[in-house]
User: Which sequence fits this backbone?
């Protein structure tokens, strides 16, 4: 039962990253590459009717985390207090950047909200990468000082950084060179992903330029991914343990690399949707490989005093989890129907829907 | 430790108060937009479609504000109330996760279609998307109040040795006697806000001699919806809600009503007075004898327990705050009924649009339903204190153990600054939409 909800939660988070990920990527492209008003319009049209529903996947994932794994929810949300609240602030800026821009036609007004949308998208991509880094690296559960827990074994608190920026320090920070590396991977991967979405959903003049951008960034991404893999063992001594035990898990890295290598052919794709498919594969494969490598841990402990949190130690009780399956099954069918309707109505290119003109 | 808890509470109170300024309008307004659109489908008179489109703009702006200020609410259970989340997440996580899955997806998927899809969908399907947005927002309210009801009156649970609350009856969460009265009371209150906003904008147009055709439509619709909801919010739903408080939280009821001493011959209803917590009495009291006993038990001499019957450590933490919140809500509710009644009579006599003083009153009444809704929620929340889960878990035991007061104050200040900005932007843009008026929408 715990395993079922674990798979549900990870799937929902992966869907969130793929869906809202293209919004963040579009924001980054908007910030760095969209100079003309027409290009900016094309980008906001491409995500306009979707971003709000995409963000719901985060809220819904949060809800499922709360209900199925309350101890993990409590421990991680209080432990990562500051960055989480900052993510909330950034989500607010992203949303008002998109929604308020079109309300007043004035160059200054538009410039302010363009920047709000772009910069918050960039920082969100960075933060989510850093978050993934923190989960892989683990935290000082129980806030152990000199071999003694100062908190209950499943609680911790991390400041934004410590003075050494080292992932191996006893007193960790949220930002260190390892988590920052994953943050940059997040930014690069989501920029590619957002560019692929824009190519998919618009006929904008930017598209040809974006294909070059995707190709170049993909090279950067490849370098970063290989670098992370090479230094991974510093963080986790036996990174491939799970993959050796369960060879079936290799499917996830294979998916990731299919996506990564597939995108190098971006300039010769006949169908505009293909790039988005490959970048989604990379995100999905990358995320699932990462969580598979630490499974069944959901939050590793960096000290030897307190055990890592596993999906079994943080789950809610049996009855609640079983009864949840009934309503969840109904809800999933409904959500699938909504998504089909939504994407059918707004199918194809969206250059002319006039988002923000209302 | 003390100031840690204080900042946690202040942050939750501040962010939820600000957040609820928006959903209280969108829930009620969605129903009124659906009404306008339905009226258009039936009569084919363009005015109704234009009215629906105009209010959709206000709705969209409110909805966006509601969404962005709503996400922090879900996060804060974990960030600031980790112990509470850990111990009760298996129960309240159910209803909160259901809210995400059932209502947020519904709302957000169809809001996009509702706002941008009129041409693509045609009027009938467009009406349907509006209806689904309405359904989503009311489902969201239902699941939130189901969660709230469990905290006020916990049901369907058992407590394990390690202190964890475990669900043992899913159905009980929805047959909770606290749920239905509170839900109906709250939804009607939301409809009051929407009615007054619609009527107030209408009065503004008539008095300003601008868009007066729409002004009349808005005033008329606002007054009819407003009269019905103002009456129903007091009776039966308000009455029903209060009876739950008497039954399940008698100490809260005593504090709310300002009853310090049990009166054997029946309790008076306090209209005005200041709770004096030092001498345990009400200063400068104006009260009507025996009415409270009658309203509560339909017997003039029924006995109502005063605060003197309870242990002081179980008193609501802030008795004067609770007392004022409740009295402001009830006082405003009474004024709403009175004003809407007079306006409805004038409407019936076809004199409403010329009765200036009523139009001015409707115009200036705009902030008061917001105050009534907010104080109503304060009554419920301050009334539950000092408990997080009534009689089972104290608020002091629910806060995050590892988040220091310095961090919470930092984020509280951040929220205050950010929400001040949001509030100013909202007022500016809503003012702009209202000033531009409905006529300029092309169709």
Assistant:
């Amino acid at each position: 039962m715990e395993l079922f909800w674990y798979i549900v939660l990870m799937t929902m988070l992966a869907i969130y990253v793929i869906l809202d990920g293209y919004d963040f990527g579009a924001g980054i492209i908007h910030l760095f590459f969209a100079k003309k008003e027409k290009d900016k319009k094309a980008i906001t049209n491409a995500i306009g009717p979707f971003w709000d529903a995409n963000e719901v996947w985060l809220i819904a994932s949060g809800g499922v985390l709360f209900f199925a794994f309350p101890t993990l929810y409590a421990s991680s949300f209080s432990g990562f207090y500051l960055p989480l609240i900052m993510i909330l602030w950034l989500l607010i800026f992203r949303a008002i950047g998109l929604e308020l821009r079109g309300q007043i036609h004035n160059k200054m007004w538009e410039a302010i909200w363009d920047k709000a949308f772009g910069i918050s998208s960039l920082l969100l991509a960075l933060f989510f990468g850093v978050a993934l880094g923190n989960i892989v690296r683990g935290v000082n559960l129980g806030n152990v000082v000199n071999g003694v827990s100062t908190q209950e074994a499943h609680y911790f608190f991390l400041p934004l950084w410590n003075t050494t920026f080292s992932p191996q320090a006893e007193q960790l920070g949220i930002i260190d060179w390892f988590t920052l590396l994953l943050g940059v991977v997040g930014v690069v991967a989501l920029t590619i992903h957002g560019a692929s979405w824009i190519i998919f959903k618009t006929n904008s003049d930017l598209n040809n330029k974006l294909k070059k951008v995707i190709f170049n960034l993909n090279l950067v991404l490849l370098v970063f991914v290989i670098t992370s893999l090479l230094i991974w063992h510093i963080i986790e001594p036996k990174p491939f343990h799970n993959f050796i035990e369960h060879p079936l898990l290799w499917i996830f890295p294979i998916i990731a690399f299919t996506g990564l290598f597939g995108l190098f052919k971006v300039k010769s794709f006949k169908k505009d949707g293909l790039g988005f498919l490959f970048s989604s594969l990379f995100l999905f494969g990358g995320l699932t490989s990462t969580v598979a490598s630490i499974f069944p841990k959901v939050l590793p402990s960096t000290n030897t005093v307190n055990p890592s949190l596993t999906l079994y130690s943080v789950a809610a009780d049996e009855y609640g989890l079983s009864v949840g399956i009934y309503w969840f099954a109904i809800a999933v069918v409904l959500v699938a129907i909504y998504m089909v309707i939504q994407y059918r109505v707004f199918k194809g290119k969206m250059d002319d829907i006039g988002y923000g003109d209302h | 430790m003390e100031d840690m808890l204080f900042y946690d509470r202040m942050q939750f109170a501040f962010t939820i108060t600000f957040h609820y300024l928006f959903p209280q309008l969108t829930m009620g307004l969605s129903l009124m937009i659906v009404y306008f659109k339905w009226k258009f489908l039936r009569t084919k008179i363009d005015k109704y479609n234009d009215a629906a489109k105009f209010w959709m703009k206000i709705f969209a702006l409110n909805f966006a504000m509601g969404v962005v200020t709503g996400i922090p609410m879900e996060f804060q259970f974990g960030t600031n109330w980790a112990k509470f989340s850990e111990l009760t997440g298996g129960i309240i996580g159910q209803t909160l996760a259901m809210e995400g899955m059932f209502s947020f997806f519904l709302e957000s998927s169809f809001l996009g279609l509702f706002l941008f899809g009129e041409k693509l969908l045609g009027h009938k399907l467009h009406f349907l998307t509006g209806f689904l947005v309405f359904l989503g927002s009311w489902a969201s309210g239902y699941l939130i109040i189901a969660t709230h009801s469990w905290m006020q009156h916990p049901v369907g649970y058992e407590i394990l040795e390690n202190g964890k609350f475990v669900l043992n009856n899913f159905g009980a969460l929805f047959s909770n006697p606290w749920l239905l009265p509170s839900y109906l009371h709250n939804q009607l209150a939301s409809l009051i806000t929407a009615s007054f906003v619609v009527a107030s904008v209408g009065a503004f147009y008539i008095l300003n001699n601008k868009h007066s055709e729409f002004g009349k439509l808005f005033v008329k619709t606002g007054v009819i919806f407003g009269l019905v909801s103002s009456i129903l919010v007091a009776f039966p739903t308000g009455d029903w809600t209060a009876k739950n408080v008497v039954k399940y939280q008698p100490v809260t009821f005593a504090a709310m009503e300002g009853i310090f001493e049990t009166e054997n011959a029946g309790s008076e209803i306090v209209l005005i007075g200041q709770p004096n917590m030092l001498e345990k009495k009400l200063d400068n009291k104006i009260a009507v004898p025996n009415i409270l006993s009658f309203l509560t038990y339909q017997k003039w001499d029924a006995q109502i327990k005063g605060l003197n019957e309870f242990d002081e450590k179980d008193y609501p933490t802030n008795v004067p705050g609770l007392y004022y919140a409740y009295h402001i809500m009830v006082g405003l509710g009474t004024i709403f009924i009175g004003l809407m009644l007079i306006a409805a009579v004038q409407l019936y006599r076809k004199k409403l649009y010329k009765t200036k003083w009523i139009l001015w009153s409707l115009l200036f009444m705009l902030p008061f339903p917001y105050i009534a809704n907010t104080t109503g929620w304060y009554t419920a929340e301050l009334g539950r204190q000092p408990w997080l889960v009534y009689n089972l878990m104290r608020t002091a035991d629910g806060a995050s153990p590892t988040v220091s007061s310095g961090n919470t104050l930092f984020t509280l200040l951040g929220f205050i600054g950010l929400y001040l900005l949001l509030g100013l932007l909202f007022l500016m843009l809503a003012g702009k939409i209202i000033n531009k008026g409905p006529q300029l929408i092309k169709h």
Observations:
- Chain A touches chain B through 67 residues (CB under 8 Å).
